[in-house]
Amino acid sequence: GGEPHTLGLFDTADYPQTDLFLVYFSVVSPSSFENVKEKQVPKITHHCPKTPLLLVGTQIDLKDDPSTIEKLAKNKQKPIITPETAEKLAHDLKAVKYVECSALTQKGLKNVSDEATLTALEPPEPKKSRRCLLL
């Protein structure tokens, strides 16, 4: 409806009243992608296990940048993170969705904002665990 909402952006996982976490990584930085799995999301799920998260790939403008590709190869790093790889991680982490954007070109920024707003205002229903009862 027409009711006002407040958006607060914080760089921490220590807010128990949080409606949504946006977890960012650079699609041209394999180490930032690994950091999502190893550090960021475990901290979030420890402090706020029921709060939804949106996985966001940034710097998509650099995917086809020759110097970025060369730098990754020179450092013997994995190739650029593909949308399919990121979507699999989002699924594994039980993220609401994976979206991509570029702050430089502004491609995808509105989509990130829209998805974050929708998720915060209409959070997904928690999945009921199925229990097996053996008699």
TrEMBL record:
GO MF, one annotated term: GTPase activity
UniProt keyword annotations, A-Z: GTP-binding, Nucleotide-binding
GO biological process: small GTPase-mediated signal transduction
Nucleotide-binding listed as a keyword: yes
Key word Endoplasmic reticulum present: no
SUPFAM superfamilies referenced in this protein's UniProt entry, alphabetically: P-loop containing nucleoside triphosphate hydrolases
InterPro entries: P-loop_NTPase (IPR027417), Small_GTP-bd (IPR005225), Small_GTPase (IPR001806), Small_GTPase_Rho (IPR003578)
Pfam families: Ras
PANTHER family from the UniProt entry: RHO FAMILY GTPASE
Name this polypeptide is given: Cell division cycle 42
